[in-house]
């Protein structure tokens, strides 16, 4: 659940391979061209891997308040905070990234 503000994902051709050339999933990524990198900002879509396979999901934590989007949590208190506890224990995934920016 500890997240950075933005990250670089894999390129278009690799994404096509991982997503089995599924046009509905590729469209969610909104590649501006057929580049080999894709920078993902909060609320953009990126590729993830779960126990059921690869898919595309929105980056970040849903906006529940008017202060803005939550993009990170403190690792040392994740299990103490009700806001994070269920997601941290039950909804894990691997984020397909080639770089991240702090």
TrEMBL record:
InterPro entries in alphabetical order: SRAP (IPR003738), SRAP-like (IPR036590)
SUPFAM superfamilies linked to this entry: BB1717-like
Pfam family, one: SRAP
Gene Ontology MF annotations: single-stranded DNA binding
Coiled coil: none
Superkingdom of source: Bacteria
Record's protein name: SOS response-associated peptidase
GO terms for biological process, alphabetical: protein-DNA covalent cross-linking repair
């Amino acid at each position: 659940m500890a997240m950075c503000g933005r990250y670089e994902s894999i390129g278009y051709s690799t994404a096509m391979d991982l997503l089995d050339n599924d046009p509905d999933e590729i469209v969610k990524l909104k590649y501006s061209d057929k580049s080999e990198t894709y920078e993902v900002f909060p609320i953009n879509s990126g590729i993830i891997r779960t126990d059921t396979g690869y898919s595309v999901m929105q980056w970040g934590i849903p906006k529940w308040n008017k202060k803005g989007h939550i993009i990170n949590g403190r690792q040392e208190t994740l299990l103490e905070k009700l806001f994070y506890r269920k997601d941290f224990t039950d909804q894990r995934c691997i984020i397909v990234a080639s770089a991240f920016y702090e």
